[in-house]
Amino acid sequence: MFVKMTGKVTLFVTRHGKTMLNTTERVQGWADSPLTAEGVLVAEQLGRGLADTTFEALYTSDRGRTLETADIVMRHADFQLPVNQLKGLREFGFGKFEGEYNLFMWETVSKRHGFPSVEAFFEVHKHDAPRVMIDAVAEMDETGMAENWDIFTERLLQSLDLICEEHTEGHVLVICHGMVINILLSLLAPNRVDGPIENASVTKISYANGEYTVESANDMQYVARGIVKN
Question: Which sign, positive or negative, has the C-alpha torsion 130, 154, 11, 27?
Answer without folding.
Answer: negative
